[in-house]
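Re-running Flagellar Assembly Protein A N-terminal region domain-containing protein to confirm reproducibility after the cluster update. Everything else is unchanged from the original entry.
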Amino acid sequence: MAESIEARSLSVKVRVSPDEMTAYLIVEPGPEGTVEVGYEQVLELVAQSGVVHGVDLPKIREALSPESWGRLVLIAQGTPPVNGQDGRVEYKFSIAERTGPAETADGRVDYRNLNLIQNVQKGQLLAVKLDPTPGTPGMTVTGKPVPAKPGKAAIIRRGRNTVLDETGHNLYSTIDGHVRVVEDKIAVEPVYEVGGDVDFASGNIDFVGDVVIRGAVTSGFKVRAGGNVEIYGVVEAATVEAGGNILVRQGIAGADRALVQAQGSVMARYIENARVIAGQDVVATDSIIQARVSAGRTVRAEGKKGAIVGGHVQARDEISARVIGSSLATQTVLEVGTDPLLREEYRVLAKEYREKKKSLETMAQNLQVLQKGLLAENLSDKRRLALLKMLQDYKALAAEVRQMEERYKALEEEFNRSQHGRIKVFDVVYPGVHVCMGKAMYTVNDPIKNAMFVLESGDIRLTSAV
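Result of re-run:
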C-alpha cells in the first residue's frame, strides 16, 4: 500500500552533493499561493531531480513531518565502491627470524630446540603468489557507476636455488637446504652456518645439508646434518651426526657422553672419552685416549704425537699410530679384519637370540601342558582358544629364531673368512694392549717397537711396520 501524507502548502527542494553520493530534502512552509504537495508528489520531485538509487523512503516521510521542516534530511545515499585487495605472497614456511623454543608432549619448553632451521627438499613448494582482486564498483544516487580501484599485483622475489613455474605463481626449491628470506628474496642455502657455539642461543641443529659451526658444540646439544659438518671449536659431551664427513678442527672431549657419528669419515685433532663411529675413516692427528672408536675402513693417529691409549678401537682394514698403549700398561683393545658394524650386529644378535631361544623353550613347555589337557578331553573352550593362539605364536617365534640362527651362522662364517686387516705401530706398542683379528687374539706383554700385526692362517703374526 503506497504511503501518503496530507497535502500542504509547502516549499520542497532536493539537493544533491557535488560527488552525487548523497541527496537531501528540505521542506519549508510555503508562502501564500504555494501549491499544496503530498508524499506522492515529493517522490515524483525526487525522481525528477535524478535521484534514483539508494533512496530512503522513510526519510522522505520524516522530512515532510513538521518537526523536520527547515532542515536538511538525508534521503538517499550512493553505494561506495569496494576497492580490490592487493595481491600477496603466501609463504609455505615461517618467515619469522626466531620461532621460539619447542614444547614437549608434557607441556614443558625445550630451550635446546629453537626451531631456527627450516629444512626443505628439492622440488618443495616455497611460496604462492595470489592475484589481486578487481574490486566492486559503486553507484551514485543519480545512478552513475563509480569505478573501484583494482588491487596491486604482488611480486615473488626469487633468490638463490629457487625457480618459478611457467605461470609465475609458484616458487619451488631447486636443492635440499635451509629456506629463508634474504633482502626480501626467498632463497635456499645449501650450508647452514652457526657464527659461534652451539648452545642455548643457537639451539640444536638439524639440517639436510652441510653445517659449519664457528665455535664449539657444548655439552647436552645435538647437531645433525644430511651432508658434512665442520666444527672450528671442540665437541664436548654432545651428539654430532652427519650423512657425510665430520671435521673437528680442535678435538672431541666427550666426558664419556659424546657421540660423533658419520657415514663418511671423522677427522679431529684429538679424541678423548667419546664414542666415534665412521663409515669410512677416523683420523686423529694427535691422540685417541680412552675412546670407543669404530671405522668401516681405517683408524689412524699418525701425527708427531699420534697415540692410541686406552679404550676400544675397531676398524675393518687398518689401525695405525705412532704409539699404542702407555708405559702404565693401560688396557687398550684393538680389533681389525671385520666391519665394526657387523661386529655390533653380531653382539646384539647374540643377546636377542639367547632371549628368544629361552622364550621359545618356555612356550614349548606350556604347550605340552595344554596338549596333555586336550588329550584328556578336559579343556574348556577358553583354554582351547588359548592353545590355538599359543600354537600360532610358537610357530611365528620358531620361524624368527631360525632366521636369527641363519644370520648368526652367516656372520660367524664372515668372521672366519676374514684374513685381511693389519695394525701398524711406528714407534712402540706397550703391554696392556690386546689385539683381535677374526677369532685370533694377541696380548702384548713387553714393549715392541716398529711393529705390524697381521693375520696369517688364523694366527696373528708380528712383522716390521716399515
